[in-house]
Amino acid sequence: MFKTNGFINCRHASQSMLQSTVDEKSGIATMTMNKSPVNSLNLEFLDEIKTHLNKFEKDNVRGMILTSGLQKVFCAGLDITEFYNPNPDRLAKFWTTLQDTWLTLYTTPFPTVAVINGHSPAGGCLFSMSCDYRVMVGPMYSIGLNETKLGIVAPKWFQDTMVAVIGQRKAEISLTTGRMYTTDEALQIGLVDESVPDTDSALIQGKQFLNNFKRISPWAYKMTKNIGRQPVVQWLIDNKQEDLDFVMKFMQSPSVQTSLGNYLQSLKK
């Protein structure tokens, strides 16, 4: 059974897969995460996502849809095995790759849509919020930054991204309680922009949103987006090492390791 309590362990259980296509007529790219069983984000998968994003930028795509090819899950978040009894060198590389992948996604020069066709906790929620527009399939799926329920803390740039989407007060409640929202609840607070009954409808709505930019100057779009997102981006750019140092110290602390170990045991049960 799929659990929405945060990160899922599958670094060694499956082969990373990411499928991307570009519609030559529309110029719209589709990036489909297809890493069984739950699209957990480990070092290799993050690097693959970043590589595809950079290629889209080089190819001057007009827009991108980020979605999942798996049943019932969009993205389960960061792979917990990257944090549990970690090799320090790999942990540092993993976190810097996460930083760079997020910066690339959050600042794309082309508009992006998250088609959320499954559960989207933790890092899955972060990637969804990093897109320009979110269409979520309802009503059975959930989304949120639920790190506190695992005994860990969402980094400042995770939190700032949520504040930018739903506002300070709603974000504070969401983050401290680790709340997961249903599709309808997420729509009500502005965490997603549309709710549809199935993936096909979500893809159609996502493409319709991207079609809004046919008559908009790519330069005007890019500059407007950069101005709006600059405060969140600039903090991480200025504090990448400080952020890494915090994660290295925090994630390797005995209390956090105990919490992660208990969580892994609960998954086995």
Spell out the key features of this protein.
9 strands; 269 residues; alpha/beta; 2-enoyl-CoA Hydratase, Chain A, domain 1; 6-stranded mixed β-sheet
- Total strands: the figure is 9
In the CATH hierarchy, what is the class? Answer: Alpha Beta
Low-confidence segments: 1-14
Overall domain count = 1
Sheet of most strands = 6 strands, mixed
Helix content range: 40-55%
Mean pLDDT, nearest integer? 90
Number of helices, where a helix is a run of at least 4 consecutive DSSP H or I residues:
10
Structure classification: alpha/beta
The first-to-last residue Cα distance is 10 Å
Question: What's the CATH architecture name?
Answer: Alpha-Beta Complex
Strand content: 5-15%
Question: Strand order, biggest sheet?
Answer: 1-2-3-4-6-9
Radius of gyration: 17 Å
Report a brief summary of the structure.
This protein is α/β, with parallel strands linked by helices. It has helices spanning about 45-60, 90-105, 125-130, 155-165, 170-175, 185-190, 200-210, 220-240, 240-250, 255-269, and strands spanning about 20, 30-35, 65-70, 110-115, 120, 135, 140-145, 180, 195.
